[in-house]
Write a structure and sequence with these properties.
Elements (H helix, E strand, L loop, with lengths): L16 E4 L3 E7 L2 E8 L1 H9 L5 E7 L5 H8 L3 E8 L7 E6 L6 E7 L18 E4 L4 H8 L9 E5 L2 H6 L1 H8 L4 E5 H8 L4 H11 L3 E5 L5 E5 L2 E5 L13 H16 L4 H18 L6 H5 L2 H15 L2
Parallel strand pairs: 1-4, 1-8, 2-6, 4-5, 8-9, 9-10, 10-11
Antiparallel strand pairs: 2-3, 6-7, 11-12, 12-13
Length: about 325
Amino acid sequence: MLMKSPVKKAEKSTQPLLVIGTVAVDSVETPFGKREECFGGSASYFSYSASFFTPVRLVAVVGKDFPGQYRKVLEERNINLEGLQVHPTGKTFRWKGKYDFDLNNAQTLETHLNVLLEFDPVVKGGDQVDFLFLANFDPALQMKVLKQVDRPRVKLAALDTMNFWIQNKPKDLKAVIEHVDLIVLNDGETRQLTGENNLIKAARKIREMGPDIIVVKKGEHGVLLFFRDQFFVLPAFPLESVFDPTGAGDTFAGGMMGYISKQGTVTFDTLKKAVAYGSVMASFAVEKFSLDRLRELKQADIEERLAEFRALTKF
C-alpha cells in the first residue's frame, strides 16, 4: 500500500531528482518560424532545466531512431540516463503542433505515441529517491513509478498532467493525485479537473483530493501557488520576444523542482523562491526553438534574470 509522507522541513538531499516523462521528437510552427524534427519531450525540458540546480535521474523510452545528437544534449548536463530505455524496433514518440499569435494555446496536428504504447517504466534504486516528479504522462504509468519508490522516504512527490488525461482517464488520474504532495496544472486544467471556475475554490477542492501544494500556471499571466492555508501570486517575466512556448511548462517545473531538491526543504519560503526560479527558466526556454536557449545558459544568466525579476515585482 502506498503511504504519503507529510510535507515537512527536511535535511538537504544528497540524492538526485527523479523524473519520468517523455523524450520526443517535435515539429513546431509558430508565427515566428518553423522547426522540423527538433528535440522535445516533457522529461527532456524538465531534466535540462532542473540540472542547473541538482543532479537528475531520467526514466523514459525512445525508439531505435532516436537521434544520437539529442542524447548528447542531455549528456551535456548532470543527467543520469541509465533509466532511458531504447526500444529495439519501435519509433520515438513524435508530436507536431502549431501556434497562432495566441501562444498560450497549441494546435496539435499529429501525435504518434509509438514506443510509449509498450513502455513499462523501471526505477532502479527506488529506495533512494528523495524528490520525484511525474511529468505529463499516462497516469497508469505514473502510478507504476510511485509503486516502485519508497514512498515514505520521498520528501516531495509532484505530478503534472493535462486535459487529455483529465477527460479520458479521470479515475486513474485521481488515484495518482491522492498519493502526491504537489500538483502542477494550468488554469484551464484546474477548472476542468474540479468543475470550479474560481481558481481559489478549485485549489481548495484539489487539496481535498490529496496534495498539500497546488501550482496553477497562467502562461503570460504568471503563476499561483497554494500551500495549505497560504497563497502566493507571481507574474510572468515580461519578454519582448517569444519564439516557441513548447516545453515552457516542463521547463518551469524543472526549475521549480530542481531548486526544491537543491534546498532539501519544503517550506512556504522555499516554494515561493522555487516558482520564481521556475518562471525564470521558462522565460529563457521560450526565447528560441526546442532546447536551444537553455543550452546557451550559464548560471550567472539565471541569477541575473532572477534579480531583475525580483526588482520588477518589489514595491
